[in-house]
Amino acid sequence: MLFFKLLSLAFCFVVAICLTASNAVAADGDKLTFDAEKFTTKSVTVDGQVVAYRAYDGIVYAAKPVDVQYQRMNLYVPTAYYEGKALGRFNVDTAPIFMPNMVGGYMPGMPGTPGVDRRGGPNAIAVALSKGFVVAAPGVRGRTLRDESGRFTGKAPACIVDLKAAVRYLRHNDKSMPGDAEKIISNGTSAGGALSALIGATGNAPDYLPYLKDIGAAEERDDIFASSCYCPITNLDHADAAYEWTFGGLSEYKFRGRSGKLSEDQVNISDALKRQFPAYLDSLALKTDEGAPLSLDENGEGSFKDYVKSFAIASAQKALDDGKDLSSYPWLTIEEKTVKDLDFGQFIKFMGRGKTPPAFDALDLRSPENNLFGTALVDNQRFTEYSREHSTDHSIADQAVVRTMNPMNFIGAKGVATAKYWRIRHGAADNDTSLAIPAILSAKLRNAGCVVDFKAPWGVPYSGDYDLTELFGWFEKIAAGD
Ligand code: DHB
To answer: How far is the CA of 278 from the centre of ligand 1 (A)?
Structure first.
């Protein structure tokens, strides 16, 4: 009797555990279910036209969020879709999903909203709605966030993990949500451009799975259709060497109100970092579209330099074609309205050095990137071998984490689905990172079979979203499969 009592007790116990477990799953599952009725109706004016939209504000996209203020997204849908109308070539189910992030400086980024941008025009979200896109604007954690106990909660790779969780939420609810989760187009500027590159490059990569599990992300694919990246501050672990390969000859710097001349120590650091670059570049075995190798000799000269220069020449040519007067640049050779040559050294001098070496992995641990690579308990860390060697305590960030923040590690890798379409912009007057960085990214993507539109628009400094007409023209073209 006692045996049966014990058996039935054990049975109840097991059933209770199972119920608790299945409740937990159900509860988590519920948390990730889209509620189509929970919206308000709003409007925004774009070029004099009033665009009404449904606003689903603040959808929490992870079942176990760490910081619910940031791990949420705003979803916007043109109201016209609910009135049986088509917008352009799209309807409520086929509309591509524009996914902008608001991250700058690897800081926390709140979910974006339609409105006016810094130039006083409609921002990218407002323009997207006016063109019939569904907008999913996720917030993501960033490097300065802390929980109540003071632990840091937004160090790398939190920002990309959150973006992936948002993609997974969209896919999880694709049937009941407006827009086509197979047509997600990411957009961002600077650190946000780097994040856009990461979400585009790293689809379904296993490296992020433990982090995704921790925050209760939906178990779905997280690859996307296309990525738009303005001045991506990316490839951080090689950006110091690229910076000195580019600006190494310049001893004066000027950046965000600070200016001066490099010290003798800094010149030595610059030389050492510059010498590292050719070996890194050659290790990538990049090729032109025609299959010719992109390489550099030990002095940093070679076909890769010509490749980078070709983007500067194309930029000058476009400016000339658009009617700009380039006669004040003696380092451009222009014959019969054609830019025949450009003196690369003079072009770089014209850009000017912004940062002091090492530009990203600062020896004094005071760069945004040092702060990005901190941990729950350590605010700032070094992340490259060079800076580790040249520090007093020889500490360095976990290299597995550093790996998760560099799209170059994932493009074309086995088990990874990289976005097919890319639009990358790095202004020809931008010295936040080297022009070599987006050039390398573009070449790697092209070599992996992606369709890449990479340009360095003339006279444009570090900035983003400055050409929304062209940007959305590109979106429309790729979304329609033209
Ligand atoms: C940003 C700019 C930088 O120069 C940098 O190193 C990191 C981030 C930014 O504005 O996002």
So the answer is: 24
Calculate mean pLDDT across residues 320-341: 97
For residues 413-435, give the mean pLDDT: 98
Measured over the CA atoms of residue 101, residue 102, residue 106 and residue 109, the dihedral's sign is negative
Angle between helices 236-247 and 344-351 (to 10 degrees): 110
Residue owning tokens 């917008």: 87
339 CB neighbour count, 10 Å cutoff: 21
Express each pLDDT in 29-74 by its tens digit: 578 999 999 999 999 999 999 999 999 999 999 999 999 999 999 9
The residue behind tokens 């909203």 is 113
Alpha-carbon distance 99 to 188, whole Å?
9
- The closest of 132, 89, 136 to 111, measured between CA atoms, is 136
pLDDT at 182 over 80: yes
Asked if 78 contacts 115 with a C-beta cutoff of 8 angstroms, the reply is no
Is the peptide bond preceding residue 114 cis, with omega within 30 degrees of 0?
Answer: no
**Average pLDDT score over residue span 256-283:** 98
Residue 274, SS3 per DSSP: helix
Residues with CB under 6 A from ligand 1: 104-106, 190-191, 233, 368, 432
**Which of 195, 229, 233, 361 has the most ligand 1 atoms within 8 A of CB, as the residue to mutate?**
233
Mean pLDDT of 286-309: 98
Is the CB of residue 410 less than 8 Å from the CB of residue 279?
no
